[in-house]
Amino acid sequence: MDKTKDIIKLIHSLVPSDKKIRIMNVCGSHEHTIAFSGMRSLMPENLEIIPGPGCPVCVCPESDIINAINLSKRDNAILVTYGDMLRVPTQKGSIRAEGKNFRMITSPFEALNIAKSNPGRKIVFFSIGFETTTAPTAGILEMGVPDNLFILSSHRLTPTIMEILVKDAEIGIDGFIAPGHVSAIVGANAWNVFSEKYGIPTVVAGFEAENLLLGILEILQQFKNGKAQTGNVYKGVVKPEGNTQAQRLMDKYFEVADVNWRGIGHIPASGLELRDEYAERDARKVFELEEIKEAKTPGCVCGTIILGKAYPSACKLFKKVCTPKTPKGPCMVSAEGACNIWYKTG
Q: How far is Cα 20 from Cα 79, in angstroms, rounded to an integer?
């Protein structure tokens, strides 16, 4: 406890009185720790910690979810995906409400087992997320999958969206807390572009409150010294080069693609799709899926919240008609969604 108090005291001493500093955390688990620990209430008035696009469920395109719903309605198919995805609302409802043949899984290996246990059905694994979940999906492909297993890929690249945020002057980011889980895959060096090209201090942090505070402290120390660097206070898990075997497998099976982000729009080179040589596993190609135009929910500002331009409390639907039990937008569904977290922490 004394160490935590000392860190907070140092943070207060480093924040200038004449300038507001905005640090963005790009991880839903980080936001969970920050909100539930009450960390913001302990920070100096001029230091703002803003949640960014750290929820993979929140940015999954509505089009992909509607296609998943339609695939689940095929008599000879079973859709498998992670639990939170079943509840994400769309203009056509959610998978849980409108789907037919679907199952919840917690890892890609369960999708593999379901395919093996149902040789007469077409199993579609709706695989979503950032680099953290892309790696195990590549892992099952490396193991070899049955002919009846197909991948509907909705994977997104974290460094790309962070670079988009940096270029948006409206947000005004002074420092990044880099996501711990993603960094374990891509490596701390993946964030060098922000310190070297844009002069923004970027520090990899873990998920304990004290470790996050250390990350914030290092960002402020860099800010005061006037020299931006890539820091890492999560060295027990994150290496400079990351998990090179996971990176190799991801590169073997996936290629960078231009994709949509829910509430944000089309972003070039920001997603991952299966390479052409694995087209027989690609649900988009096998089932000839088409892009469906996104329909905005009146009053929902999830896209603005994801970009760090607004807090959940700024949304007119928040806590009124939009709750974890009756979500109107994707940010209220997942435990990593900013609206869900803010709802539960008040």
A: 47
**Angle CA(192)–CA(196)–CA(199) in degrees, nearest 5?**
115
Identify which of 124, 130, 122, 129 has the alpha carbon closest to the alpha carbon of residue 151: 124
One digit per residue, pLDDT tens: the chain, 346 residues?
A: 579 999 999 999 999 988 999 999 999 999 999 999 999 999 999 999 999 999 999 999 999 999 999 999 999 999 999 999 999 999 999 999 999 999 999 999 999 999 999 999 999 999 999 999 999 999 999 999 999 999 999 999 999 999 999 998 889 999 999 999 999 999 999 999 999 999 999 999 999 999 999 999 999 999 999 999 999 999 999 999 999 999 999 999 999 999 999 999 999 999 999 999 999 999 999 999 999 999 989 999 999 999 999 999 999 999 999 999 999 999 999 999 999 999 999 8
Write the CB contacts of 262 (distance below 8 Å, at least 6 apart in sequence).
Answer: 58, 59, 60, 61, 62, 294, 302, 303, 330
Tokens 């913001």 — which residue? Answer: 40
Question: For the structural domain made of 1-296, what CATH number should be given?
Answer: 3.40.50.11750
User: What radius of gyration do the chain's Cα atoms show?
Assistant: 20
Residue 134: partners with Cβ closer than 8 Å, 6 or more residues away: 127, 155, 185, 250, 254, 272
Token pair, residue 22, equals 């905005």
Domain ranges across the chain: 1-296, 302-345
Say how far apart CA 316 and CA 298 lie, in whole Å: 10
Picking from 161, 151, 150, 138, the residue whose alpha carbon sits closest to that of residue 58 is 161
In angstroms, the CA 207 to CA 140 distance is 28
> How many C-beta atoms surround the C-beta of residue 162 within 10 A?
24
DSSP character at residue 207: S
179-195: burial string, b at 16+ Cβ within 10 Å, e else: bbbbbbbbbbebbebbb
148 residue type, one letter: N
